[in-house]
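Sample pair:
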Amino acid sequence: MKMIKLIDNALKMLTKADNGIILLNVSNEPVHPADAAFRGELVTPYNALDFIAESFKVNGLQIGDREIRMKLIQLLLEFEKVEANKTRKSKLKELLAENELKEFGKII
């Protein structure tokens, strides 16, 4: 399974969860508790966090471990920071090229 699909499924499941408990109908599709009550569907409760952790574990990511989650968040934040700086640097180079300047910020 592709990681993006796995993440999308986990987010969808968490939005339909109630305090970490997901209700699955007979087709094993996540159902919001209010929808299940309104439609009178037969549902089975599951621990959404365990279900998601197991799905990621099968795909090689131990998301159940808090330390790994914190490191992953830190990695993503640093990655986004580097991407933002890369974009700014390329815009600065474009601006310098437009104005035919070779360097910026050097005292002559």
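The chain has one domain: 3-98.
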